[in-house]
Amino acid sequence: MTTKKRIIIIGAGFAGLRLAQDLENTDYDVLLIDRNNYHQFQPLMYQVATARLEPASISFPLRKVFQHSKNVRIRIAEVQKVETEQQIVQTSIGAFEYDHLVIAFGCTTNYFGNPSIEKFAFPMKSVPEAIQLRNQILQTFEDTLIASADDLPALLNFVVVGGGPTGVELAGALAEMKKNILPKDYPDKDFSKLTIYLLEGSPAILGPMSPDSQKMSRIYLEQLGVIVKTDTIVSQYDGTNVQLQSGAIIPSKNVIWAAGIIGNTLNGIPESTITRGNRYVVNRKSNIIGLNNIYALGDVAYMETPKYPKGHPQVASVAIEQAKILANNFKNLLKGRALIDYEYHDKGSMATIGKRKAVVDLPKFSFQGRLAWLTWMFIHLMLILSVKNKLSIFVNWMFSYFNNDSTLRVLLKPAVKK
């Protein structure tokens, strides 16, 4: 039995992983619980879906990360509920006691209560979902070779719903596949009628970014042939036809849903602590309101501060900074020092649309084009955990840059027992 204070971290995303790393080899007993045995780098998930990167390039085994840790343990499990009075977390592999509990399991796809969209559209919030989407995209190209004239329109229309960074980057990647790869892979098929739609419900794509970045990203997408429709809301989707709120219909068997996220919730945490978007209301020390030893970090946390009276953006940099501050506060607790309040220092935002096409917003200015594209690549490479993965991604990017191609278009389907 350990006499150390026990911290349980639920979720190995940006916040949970960073917190565990910062508490490594301290006087805490840390238990990191996740349903997967790896950390996934979500900003590059779309490149897995479009066969530019292998899944292993953006996935990092948790046990590898903590091989030299003396106090961090890993458990792969589904968390079922928390018993706050007994300070116990119930999971699919048993119960675990805690002194401090940190909820950092992030968000899931928000279908806005529309069951038809949830049933038929393709999400892209995890590595398995990205692989599923890659299979769908590659299989669609094969299906067009034998499809009837009546079935072709639905196969040749790709509809990306959501004009945030994920939607914009995915639409750009699909457009580059159409331009650079399909003519070489399928010389016997005319893909000129393949159409990529990007649908956004608000007046502009990349809503949180500057007007210049919004304008240029739209120009870049339209130069690549993407049809961008703003102020456009999807009302229904039956697997073959996308029905818009305006009444218009787009035939498509390939609808990718990147229109929003909603927080995961945990049984046992009072509903009174949850605000819009299923986010837990926390104070500036990341404590869930009314629960002194339970914390929330990252996308699932809602914290109001003087600079951000409506909460912080749900981005990786916020999650990482919150984890750093909480780790310091845990260390301060042991030493009897004063705790630190969190405030987000905006480092900017960015999105890439295609080769030599990107937009970057920094706190005081923004820029677009080739320099923005190089900046985007450099920042994302620096955020990758391992040197091996950095090299793998860099080599793939350089190969794609000089050849306008990739070698990763492999259909990975599960085996079926006979």
Automatic annotation (TrEMBL):
Annotated ranges, domain FAD/NAD(P)-binding: 6-323
UniProt entry tagged with the keyword Signal: no
Catalysed transformations (reactions): a quinone + NADH + H(+) = a quinol + NAD(+)
Membrane-spanning residues: 371-387
Domain External alternative NADH-ubiquinone oxidoreductase-like C-terminal residue range list: 347-401
Domain of life: Bacteria
A Pfam cross-reference name: NDH2_C
Keyword annotations of the record: FAD, Flavoprotein, Membrane, NAD, Oxidoreductase, Transit peptide, Transmembrane, Transmembrane helix
Alphabetized SUPFAM superfamilies for the sequence: FAD/NAD(P)-binding domain
InterPro entries xrefs: FAD/NAD-bd_sf, FAD/NAD-binding_dom, NDH-2, NDH2-like_C
EC numbers on record: 1.6.5.9
Similarity field: Belongs to the NADH dehydrogenase family.
Name of this chain's protein: NADH:ubiquinone reductase (non-electrogenic)
Source lineage: Bacteria, Pseudomonadati, Bacteroidota, Flavobacteriia, Flavobacteriales
